[in-house]
């Protein structure tokens, strides 16, 4: 605020000095223009009034016709600056409201995972490739079932509103059915049926359902015992961190993604892996392993994780976040979702 006021004072002082041969009054319009770059419309209007007053003072002695024209020009330009400041302020409020709604929608769809679920300690990360977007095509969720916890992580093909629609469908279906389908294969059949169901929209071609699929891994972790049950539908294999070792939990019988259930033979193969107290599961989407450095090399997730001392989920996810962004030069080309799960003793 000091700069516009100083400009007005300097211009008026110089213009009223006995020596100058030129009239500097019209330069006063710079003051409200500068004010509009950092202040609201009311402050811009106040500086505009000071500018008009300064023009009236500095134009004393100028021919009446020129004087009236210069004052009118300063008044008109000041009014335009105030008007556009009002529009910018209104647009800023609308943008803030849109971001608030977007944050609320994200919290509803992508509910933050709790730090503790039963005997599990959990930490998660969600990043979108679009900087202004809050929701993308990646997803994760957790649900308590009888005697354990059920987890899903997935990645919807494509981007934009169609991917967000499918994300919402999968998350809603999982939360509704996770408690009702006692068997993991039954849950996958249900998710297959709803994966790419989309209501027809007037005037839009019905092509999304033909191109839609969702890679996903669904896990059952029982409170007792020392194992997990996994069905992987075309998703990157989870990593098991045990001591200094990192093991990929690959599916024994690879299956196509959700939405392509017609290609899956009857029944779903459930893989069982050892999961003991102190072990950490790292679930992730392909946005992690497909991030590239300046040379085009993919991010070596398993190799990086094996070299880190962090095994506590929150520290592990935070380190992964920082390392991934540094590796990719601060910009991601795809959405990223990560969930770290530790079984406590």
Describe the structure.
With 345 residues, the chain is of the alpha+beta class. It contains ten helices and eleven strands. The protein has helices spanning 2-16, 30-35, 41-58, 64-109, 160-177, 184-194, 208-211, 286-289, 301-307, 313-327; strands at 116-117, 120-127, 138-145, 148-156, 214-222, 227-233, 239-242, 245-248, 271-274, 280-284, 336-343. Strands 1-2-11-10-7-8 form a six-stranded antiparallel β-sheet. A five-stranded antiparallel β-sheet has the order 3-4-5-6-9, with helices on one face. The chain is elongated.
Main attributes?
42% helix; alpha+beta; six-stranded antiparallel sheet
A few lines on this structure:
This protein has 345 residues and is of the alpha+beta class. 42% of the residues lie in helices and 20% in strands. The strands form two sheets. A six-stranded antiparallel β-sheet has the order 1-2-11-10-7-8. The chain has a five-stranded antiparallel β-sheet with strand order 3-4-5-6-9, covered by helices on one side.
Walk me through the topology:
Elements: H1 2-16, H2 30-35, H3 41-58, H4 64-109, E1 116-117, E2 120-127, E3 138-145, E4 148-156, H5 160-177, H6 184-194, H7 208-211, E5 214-222, E6 227-233, E7 239-242, E8 245-248, E9 271-274, E10 280-284, H8 286-289, H9 301-307, H10 313-327, E11 336-343
Antiparallel strand pairs: 1-2, 2-11, 3-4, 4-5, 5-6, 6-9, 7-8, 7-10, 10-11
Helix pairs in contact: 1-3, 3-4, 5-6
